[in-house]
Amino acid sequence: MKESLSLPEARRIALAAQGFAQPAPTVAGTRQLNLALTRMATLQIDSVNVFARSHYMPLFSRLGPYDTAALDKLLFSRRAPYVEYWAHVASFIPAVDWGLFRFRMDDLRAKYGSEPDSWYQTHREIVDWVRAELADRGPLRPAQIEHDAGTTARGPWWDWDVVKRALEYLWLFGEVAIAGRRGFERRYGLAEDVVPAEVLAAPVPRDYAIAELIARAAKAYGVATASDLADYWRLKDRGAVVSAIRNLEDAGVLRPVTVQGWQAAGRPAKAWMHSSASVPRRVDAAAILTPFDPVVWFRDRAQRLFDFDYRIEIYTPAPRRRYGYYSLPVLIDDDIVGRVDLKADRGASTLLVQSAWWEPDHPTDAAARLADVLRDAARWQGLNAVSVSRWGDAADDLAGAMPEARRHEAGAAAAIPLERDEPAPEDRAGASVEA
Fold this sequence. Notes:
Elements: E1 4-5, H1 7-17, H2 30-40, E2 43-44, H3 57-63, H4 68-76, E3 82-87, E4 89-94, H5 102-112, H6 119-122, H7 124-137, H8 160-172, E5 176-182, E6 185-190, H9 197-200, H10 206-221, E7 223-224, H11 226-232, H12 238-250, E8 254-259, E9 263-264, E10 267-268, E11 271-274, E12 286-288, H13 299-306, E13 327-332, E14 335-345, E15 350-358, H14 366-380, E16 385-389, H15 395-401, E17 406-408
Parallel strand pairs: 1-8, 15-16, 16-17
Antiparallel strand pairs: 2-4, 3-4, 5-6, 7-11, 8-11, 9-10, 12-13, 13-14, 14-15
Helix pairs in contact: 7-8, 10-11, 10-12, 14-15
């Protein structure tokens, strides 16, 4: 067993763990979707919809064009096998894993719901009313919850934002679960109406839960540092993370390795490889990635693995954007070789490549292979054409590889109003834990 890995080996291990070392299926059905979700262990949600909603994209990246209705059925149907929780921020997890996050629910209640002057405590009348509405009427959207003041005359309705805030706290505390969505609007229900009763009856002790989550993160990453493993589930308890890693190492689940170029304080960084990880001789992949794909969602790891300096620029004023509004990393084989800013123009049935950029030392066939991915992406989104702008050092190469594509003038995409239920940008930075 290797104790030292080259950087290309580490990249191939990481990509194989995420499912990129195997060919995409001819047809991706429910079985393939479940297998991909199992590999990732969680699926992050984000509300930006300029090309495709982020939770649809990791499956496209790994499986190619698939029927998003099949994923919707897995995620949003009544008694779906997956449920939303604050796992790696707002994410889908298997419903059977709800109990693994009881420690987080307890921590969030202690943080936001215990102090007498907290919003939750000072608005208990609203919170109790919302809870009672769900108990009486079943899962509801926030707009469906009305407030009757209890007088002979009908009282004022509580503001939608107040109801929504009460629902969000109850969700974070584990009293409420997401019972599906209408469009992208959540339906909230009491946890007992959404999560299987046997799961609710078996909360997982904190130490065991953290150890299990670290083991799953290690399997999903293949090879990782302690900070990588902590960030997978946004674990902030350094002592618990370090203890879990040591116990998993003693059990033979993890083994320490060094990775070429991974440094901490001028010394080789401590890293661990999962016992099930494989080191493929090559990875033959071509994909575009969402910014919230596990391959790149922890920006420090993306820098270490791929020498890829990545920030999305949706919060950057248009004149100051370097790569575009919502640039997506381009994966070719075992490296990230560029980025493309995509937008689906539904009215014109056209996939707009708003900008395209190469990383240094991209392979000579990158444009042709990216062109095939974009053709698939347009077909997957039901778009009939592709148009490539003139912005970016990869734009002309890409257009040359797509003779059927139209061209349009470069220009930063207009800012799109966001309805976000995810954290602010500063909350995306990730955990920092070293063992």
